Amino acid sequence: xxxxxxxxxxxxxxxxxxxxxYQVELFAPAEVVDPALTYFRCVRGFRNAVGKGLRHTDQxxxxxxxxxxxxxxxxRDAMRKDLELSETAGEGD
Length: 93
Prior knowledge:
This protein has helices at residues 3-27, 30-51, 59-91. By secondary structure, the chain is mainly alpha-helical. Helix 1 runs antiparallel to helix 2 and helix 2 packs antiparallel against helix 3. The longest helix is centred in the last third of the chain and has 33 residues, at 59-91.
């Protein structure tokens, strides 16, 4: 597969993520948006690397994988913390 074909395929696969990113930016507090955008950018960087030919056997593949896991964990933790604060805040009403 050519670099152009890989790039187009990777972009098509990632396109749905933009809508979700915009939704998070509109509705979530900054404490959630910031780590979510960090994760988004990390995955987008991986997409770009795959489009340029990154393979699972390449040395950088593991670095991208670990970075994606770490930034996803940070985003999840922020979302969970926000939900817990929201539930606690509503109990006093």
